[in-house]
Amino acid sequence: MNRTLVNIISHNDPLPAYLFIKENYQDGDRLLFVSARRDGEKIDFLTNLIKIDPNLIDDIVLKYNSDEYTYERICRRLKAQLHSDTTYLVNLAGGSRYMALAVHQVFESFNTKFFYTQTRENIIVSSIFDNSIYDNDDIFYPIRYRMTLAEYFQVHGLSHDIDRKHFHKPIIKAQQTQNLFNIFTKKQLSSEEYETINTLRTEYRGMSRAARISDIEHKNAPRLSSLLRHIGFTPSNEGYISPDEVEYLTGGWFEEYVYNLIERTVKPQDIAIGVHIARPGEKHNNELDVCFIKANTLFVIECKTGVQNDHMFNEIVYKACALREALLGMTCHSYIFSLKYDNEGDLERVARIMDITFCSQKTLTTPYNINAVMQNMIQLSHETVDKEYGNTQQ
């Protein structure tokens, strides 16, 4: 019997439909998308993204806006396009609850298996909707498909520069970065050395080509060579410092430290530094300091070596929250890592209100605390979902 995978399209959360297809599609299957009128454009977007023969894809787009909440019209529109000689695999995640009720009502009369894709838990639930609620026939399947960062952004309709691979990986060896972390957290820099770093940040960050170190020293940073010797940093081109090296010394090292920490402990499927994302056609873009994906769950970390005042911190929190809600989807988890102390816990409380995890210098330098943060990330990803649910009945 022919198989058709059915998804209700949602404009604000396309991930359940995408993962349901990736997890269940077999050669020869057809796809059927059901959507309200306002979400119809998402069908073309998903069709292009999943790279399946367009001749195998059908859609049911409700004609009027009011049809989305007119039960009988939904049912009539659906029933007119279904066939008795087809097996339907229906994903009830997506769209409104009202739409899902109508979809279930119609497909119940056909040869149908019902599913629910729960992206937050990284599972697909197979259910039989009947009057017997004590036979434990709900089955949990872990989603085994794994997305890349680029794929995640594309599913959410975002443009990105992730494919420029050499721009999004560490440029300095991990041991050098660890050394800098130790120097900063143990306050082993003099006031003059801090001033030199600040000069590099304000005067030379963003320069277009390498600068001669002696010229910088002569102009406004006389202790630059001394600073480089103290921190054990050797420029790749003797006597010169490159734009990337300036960026590294003025804060980029902390992003690389966090990158190395995550890669070593959380072991994500994909991780990157400094990714720019935007809605296509919009001039404004957003930079993600460190982002990674594990078991289809996105994590974004804002890295700040310093936060001057509470107002600045609040702006960082609001930006992270807005970015997640407007662009990155429901399976995104947001963090702020900073070298600032939070002795009274005020910053942590502000971040927590906005559902953001704040890691202060104390957390980062206390092995037990930072390990707890890393383990929580692993748990949030549900990478070990096999152990929680498995493919057996519950």
Descriptors:
alpha/beta; elongated; 15 strands; 15 helices
Structural features, described:
There is one protein chain. The chain is α/β, with parallel strands linked by helices and 394 residues long. The chain has 15 helices and 15 strands. The strands form 3 sheets. Strands 3-2-1-4-5-6-7 form a 7-stranded mixed beta sheet. Strands 8-11-12-13-14-15 form a 6-stranded mixed beta sheet, with helices on both faces. A two-stranded antiparallel sheet has the order 9-10. Helix 2 links the parallel strand 2 and strand 3. The longest helix has 23 residues. It starts with a strand and ends in a 6-residue tail after the last helix. The relative contact order is 0.10. The C terminus is likely disordered.
**Low confidence ranges:** 390-394
Order of helices and strands: EHEHEHEHEEEHEHHEHHEHEEEHEHEHHH
Structural class: alpha/beta
Shape: elongated
Strand order of the largest sheet: 3-2-1-4-5-6-7
Q: Please estimate the helix content.
A: 40-55%
- Distance separating the two termini: 29 Å
Overall mean pLDDT stands at 88
Sheet-strand content, in percent, reads 15-25%
Describe the biggest sheet? 7 strands, mixed
